[in-house]
Specification:
- The protein has about 325 residues and is mainly α.
- It has 2 domains: about 30-150 and about 290-320, no CATH class; about 150-285, no CATH class.
- It is built from 13 helices and no strands.
- The protein has helices at about 1-25, 30-65, 70-90, 95-100, 105-115, 125-145, 155-160, 165-185, 190-220, 225-260, 260-285, 290-315, 320-330.
- The longest helix is centred in the N-terminal third of the chain and has 35 residues, at about 30-65.
- Keywords: Membrane, Transmembrane, Transmembrane helix.
Length: about 325
């Protein structure tokens, strides 16, 4: 009797462990490495898009023509498409909370590129900000969750119909309608946060949709009743993703026509990342697998990245370097 009870207890424990493993599947090391590599390359490509598009807009204004006729603007647009495809591949391999913050690597890369193509300033504090952004990204990689909380189409459908997530999407939609139809026409060209808010709020649709398409696509080609549901879900998510990208694309170019590309890219990264992580936390619950130490590590990493971005942008107009600092120290002595 005792041995049977012990065997039953062990069987129950094993079943619970298996269920937990199914609910939080850990990607293979090769998949994680591939996803990280694609995410890093995509962030660098995305970091160049705003600079190239801004350069094309400036060239077109100088000639008095539309930026749609400029080859540099189209190069930036194609780079944006390539970067988004890379993000799509990365989201299917590793958790969203790991891929999205890595976009920070595109900010220092874009600032360095802008200093050459657009002659925007990058002083010693800007270079220090680039270093901090890269260091913070490494910290984020180390402490990010390594397991997936949503791994099947059924789990995805359950999460999408969760009242909390539906309520969040309704709030986002109301804010977008208010910004697009009332606030943007009046204050968009003079307040950079209007366009940034529109593009960042749309991230609440683009990133979860991209992640969901990757999950639904796994069941489309299976010969079972769920394949039709998976196809319908995939088409709906594709439509949402397409509409979101088109609107984002329009307001990104509106912002680049009015504001500095580096300033826009930096603020956009912080706001976009924050809102995407919020949407992913509500939908995918990836934070449920993160311990206290890793949570604090990710918070410190994100703070380090944000401070680095502030140093790149806020102090870019300060004209000083290490040589001038050494001269002032000699005079003081």
């Amino acid at each position: 009797m005792g041995s049977r009870a012990g065997t039953g207890g062990m069987g129950t424990a094993a079943a619970a462990a298996a269920a937990a493993g199914e609910g939080a599947r850990s990607p293979s090391p090769a998949a994680v490495s591939l996803g990280l590599g694609v995410a890093v390359v995509s962030s660098l490509v995305n970091g160049s898009t705003f600079v190239l598009q801004k350069k094309g807009i400036v060239r077109a204004k100088r000639r008095g023509t539309s930026y749609l006729t400029d080859i540099v603007w189209w190069a930036g647009t194609i780079a944006m498409a390539v970067g988004q495809i890379g993000n799509f591949l990365a989201y299917t391999a590793v958790p969203t909370v790991l891929v999205t913050p890595l976009g920070a690597l595109g900010v220092p890369f874009g600032s360095i590129l802008a200093s050459y193509l657009l002659k925007e300033k990058l002083n010693i504090l800007g270079k220090l900000g680039c270093l901090l952004s890269c260091a913070g990204s490494v910290v984020l990689i180390i402490h990010s969750p390594k397991s997936e909380s949503v791994t099947t189409q059924a789990e995805l459908e359950e999460k999408l119909t969760n009242p909390v997530f539906v309520g969040y999407l309704c709030i986002v939609l109301l804010m977008l309608l208010l910004l697009i139809f009332w606030i943007a026409p009046a204050h968009g060209p003079t307040n950079i946060m209007v366009y940034i808010s529109i593009c960042s709020l749309l991230g609440s649709f683009t990133v979860p949709s991209t992640k969901g398409i990757g999950l639904a696509a796994q069941d489309i080609f299976h010969n079972n009743p769920s394949s039709q549901r998976a196809l319908c879900l995939c088409l709906v998510l594709l439509a949402v993703l397409g509409c979101s990208i088109i609107v984002q694309f329009r307001y990104i170019n509106k912002a680049l026509e009015c504001f500095d590309s580096s300033v826009f890219g930096a603020i956009y990264y912080v706001v976009f990342t924050t809102l995407v992580l919020l949407a992913s936390a509500i939908l995918f619950r990836e934070w449920s697998n993160v311990g206290l130490v890793d949570f604090l590590g990710m918070a410190c990493g994100f703070t380090t990245v944000s401070v680095g971005i502030v140093l790149i942008q806020v102090f870019k107009e300060f004209n000083f370097n290490l040589g001038e600092m050494n001269k002032s120290n000699v005079k003081t002595d």
